[in-house]
Amino acid sequence: MEFTAKQIADYLGGTVDGNADATVNSFSKIEEGKAGSISFLSNPKYAHYIYDTKASVVIVNADLQLEQEVPCTLIRVANAYESVAKLLQLYDSMTPAKKGIDPLAFISPSATIGEDCYIGAFAYIGENAVVGSNCQIYPNTYIGDGVTIGSQCLFYPHVSIYHGCRIGNRVTLHSGAVIGADGFGFAPGAEGYSKIPQIGIVTIEDDVEIGANTCVDRSTMGSTFVRKGVKLDNLVQIAHNTDIGSHTVMSAQVGIAGSTKVGSWCMFGGQVGVSGHITIGDKVMLGAQSGVNKSLDSNQSLIGGPPQDPRAFFKQIALMRRLPEMYEQISQLQKEIQELKQNKESNE
Is the dihedral of CA 301, 303, 306, 309 positive or negative? Predict the structure, then answer.
């Protein structure tokens, strides 16, 4: 399908700078633009590409200042990144959803399946499970006994949802995600470790997206919670009895230990580690590889281990690079002081 720059601008609430009748039928990165495609520019690091991109239309921020003429038509919007996301969502929604139950899928006679679902080959849906309408369950997905799933969910191949867990509406689980495996609970004894049965569940609320090979463990008792709008990257570990606040996002390889409560609208960079039984407030931003061992108040941007103000952290890093030089200087000063002492003693 083809769309004009004007049609796209009207949809996004933007304005056209250039040929309003320019047409596009595909997407491209700005550095790989080609005729008939639409691209976007939001990161200043890529600004130089706009002067020679082959893309026919480029979405930009309204306040972009040009240093010279550009070969493409611009659509100016308040937020280019947000606008291209909206456009991609529209494009994705045009792809017809799969429907129907593959004859190689297993569905327990006691399970309830909503309308217009797709269930792929070798998917397994256990006893008394409930699947809402318009769900997409791809091949080799496992849904255990008593699991409840809302409507418009999308589960990619090899997702596993253990017994009793609760999944809300419009939840996306990517390949290899495991929801409801046992929490890491063992009681040390004289002869080894005794397993503590994990009899709780996992509750995932609406509009959550969980990346590939990410694990959310079931609670010892009660429920582990992933609240509304949370987005988890690939390879994230959420331990038992944790409570992840609404609209919090976590990058790859974040690990949250057991019984920790994370507030709403937090942002954790890659490989952040959080110890157990602590509370992190709302809107806490943690830089990559931060290590958190105590509770944190709301509305902070921190990095390091233990986390601290970024300015102090980077100042320490800069000083650490000078340590060899400073060590030599201190050694020389100590040597000079020792020589002065010896000269003084010899003159007395």
Answer: negative
Distance CA 278, CA 283 (A): 16
> Please, how many CA atoms are within 13 Å of residue 182, restricted to the half-sphere of its CB?
8
Task: For strands 201-204 and 231-232, give the pairing.
Answer: unpaired
User: Which 8-state DSSP code applies to residue 248?
Assistant: -
Quote the Cα angle for 259-264-266, to 5°: 90
Q: Is 277 noted as a catalytic residue in this protein? A: no
The C-alpha torsion from 99 through 100 and 103 to 109, rounded to 10°, is 130
The answer to whether the predicted template modeling score (pTM) of the entire model surpasses 0.90 is no
Q: What is the pLDDT of residues 259-274, one digit of tens each?
A: 999 999 999 999 999 9
Contact 298, 263 (CB under 8 A): yes
Catalytic residue among 158, 174, 240, 247: 240
For tokens 């509370």, name the residue: 279
For the chain, give me the number of helices (H) and strands (E)? 4, 39
Q: How far apart are alpha carbons 279 and 294 in whole angstroms?
A: 8
pLDDT digits (tens, 9 = 90+) for 291-303: 999 999 999 999 9
Q: Is residue 31 a contact partner of residue 19, using CB atoms and an 8 Å limit?
A: no
DSSP 281: -
